Amino acid sequence: MENVINESMGERIRILRKKKGMSQELLADELDISFKHLSKIERDEVVFSVDILRKIADYFDVSSDYILNGSEKKISKEEIMLWIDNHYVIG
Known about the structure:
Blueprint: H1 9-19, H2 24-31, H3 35-42, H4 50-60, H5 64-69, H6 77-87
Helix pairs in contact: 2-3
C-alpha cells in the first residue's frame, strides 16, 4: 500500500471506501454505525473508538497503523494520544 502520511485518517478511510466502490451508507451498515457518524469520521470531525478503528481496518484488510498514520510503521499509544491531543478538541 502506498504511503499516504499527508492524508488525514478520514481521507484514508474515504479513499479505501471509494476504491471498493462503496457508498457511505453501505459501509456504515457493514460497520454497524450510523451514516452520520461515518460521514463525520471521513470529515475528521469526530474521534472514533478503537472498536470502530478495528472494524474499519479489518473490513479493508489494512492495519490500524495504516488508518492512523498512513503507513505500516507501528506507532505507540503515546504517539496516538499526542496526535489526538494536537488535532481534536475533546469535551
